[in-house]
Amino acid sequence: CPFVKVARPDDASSKRSENQSKHTGEHEGKAKNETVDSSIIEAKCPLGYDSRSFKLGPLSCVICQALLFESSKCVPCSHVFCKGCITRFNDCPLCGADIEKIEADNDLQKVVDRFIDGHARIKRSHASTDAEAAVSDNKPVIYEDVSLDRGAFLVHHAMRAFRARNIESAKSRLSLCVTDIREQLEASPNNPELCSQLGAVLGTLGDCCRAMGDGGSAITYFQESVDALSRLPTQDMEIIHTLCVSLNKIGDLKYYDGDLQASKSYYSRSLEYRHNAMKSHSDSPSLTLDVAVSLAKVADVDKGLGDE
Predict the structure, then answer these.
(1) Which residue windows does the record flag with biased composition (Basic and acidic residues) (predicted)?
(2) Which homologous superfamily does the CATH classification assign to the domain defined by 199-308?
């Protein structure tokens, strides 16, 4: 996953902890006023959305387990869920009460939206110069990052919603992520990590549109994913896989629309990328399987075109 680096805890934190323990051990027995090592305070979001776990908090929907989207309140029990989740139920999933009607909870949704925009952007310096941010023995406090990188934060909640079939919620979160990445790319147009992230998120947006039955928008997102990933070096197996998957998905949609020539064009491009990758990764079982899949797709289209 292109977001794995930002999603996992900072390796530097553990190194600082080790250095701190070593430093403390060396100076054990000395007076407190001679101690210069730092105390590390691991940040903890009071609502449970910290950088090491994704617990359910008060702003989560218990059905999709993601942050609320289009918050809707059940009447008369007043329990709140995502609109796309609760409309599938006749009884409240929490208390079992009959749902007489569903009302939008706009005030709560504003809180959720502000939380996403604020919490996911919070960054704190590891070196605090604030005199008040010190423990009682005058050791300087080092604050860990309070939250995940915004992209990883949004993608994680989008995937939770997608798995729970709350596609509108997933699409909304992914769209925010795409907007953020494109803003960053304006300052650094050829950044490979950003291009990789953009390609992956656009491909997932295509999956959302496909699940909603919007084939035209799905093709647009898949094509944008291909364009973003095509800028990158083709030595990276993960990039090749994501690129070829997007090409094949466009081919699938063209195939179902009856445009076999266009379908073959996309399948053939995917096959070409995978054949080229095989030259330097001939011992990769997964790549061998991918090549077989592409060959089968091209053969299926050829059969439909009468070119057996």
Answers:
(1) 7-33
(2) Tetratricopeptide repeat domain (1.25.40.10)
pLDDT for position 30: 44
With b for 16 or more beta-carbon neighbours within 10 A and e for fewer, the 212-234 pattern comes to: eeebebbbbbbbbbbebbbebee
Residue 281's Cβ-side half-sphere holds a number of Cα atoms within 13 Å equal to 21
The one-letter amino acid at 36: V
Mean pLDDT of 8-13: 42
Q: 3-state DSSP: the chain helix, strand, coil percent, rounded to 5?
A: 55, 10, 35
Q: Which of 42-56, 65-79, 167-181, 248-262 has the lowest mean pLDDT?
A: 42-56
CATH superfamily membership of 39-149: Zinc/RING finger domain, C3HC4 (zinc finger) (3.30.40.10)
Which residue, among 210, 155, 207, 146, has the nearest Cα to 181 in the 3D structure?
155
Q: Is the pLDDT of residue 71 over 90?
A: yes
pLDDT-derived band at 85 (thresholds 50, 70, 90) equals very high
What span, in angstroms and rounded, lies between the C-alpha atoms of 116 and 104? 19
Q: Which two tokens stand for residue 171?
A: 């699409």
Mean of pLDDT values over 97-106? 94
